């Protein structure tokens, strides 16, 4: 098998690979872990990190509420579509 054949096969394989979808909770978790790794050198920095962590908790709470609302709306759409078909 020629080198170009291997390159073509590898490229085709890699292009057909789809990455896993990254959700908002993955981003929130990554940010949370990053914030925990920071070492504050001053009291001001410490306070900023605490504020950022609190804001991240609020973002997580709002994301959860949005997910619940989306799920509820999807159920309502499903019900409406089923009643429309009848």
Number of continuous helical runs: 3
Count of separate structural domains: 1
Structural class: mainly alpha
> Low-confidence runs (pLDDT<50, min 5 residues)?
none
Rounded to the nearest angstrom, the distance between the terminal CA atoms is 59 Å
Helix % is over 70%
What's the quick description here?
The protein has 86 residues and is mainly alpha-helical.
SSE diagram, text form:
Elements: H1 3-16, H2 24-37, H3 43-85
Helix pairs in contact: 2-3
Describe the overall structure:
This protein is 83% helix and 0% strand. The protein is mostly helical. It has one domain (23-85). The chain starts with a helix and ends with a helix. The mean pLDDT is 87.
Key phrases:
86 residues; 3 helices; mainly alpha; single chain
């Amino acid at each position: 098998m020629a080198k170009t054949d291997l390159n073509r096969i590898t490229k085709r394989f890699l292009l057909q690979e789809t990455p896993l979808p990254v959700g908002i909770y993955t981003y929130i978790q990554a940010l949370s872990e990053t914030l925990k790794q920071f070492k504050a050198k001053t009291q001001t920095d410490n306070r900023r990190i605490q504020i950022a962590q609190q804001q991240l908790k609020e973002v997580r709470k709002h994301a959860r509420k949005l997910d619940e609302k989306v799920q509820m709306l999807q159920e309502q759409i499903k019900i409406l579509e089923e009643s429309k078909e009848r």
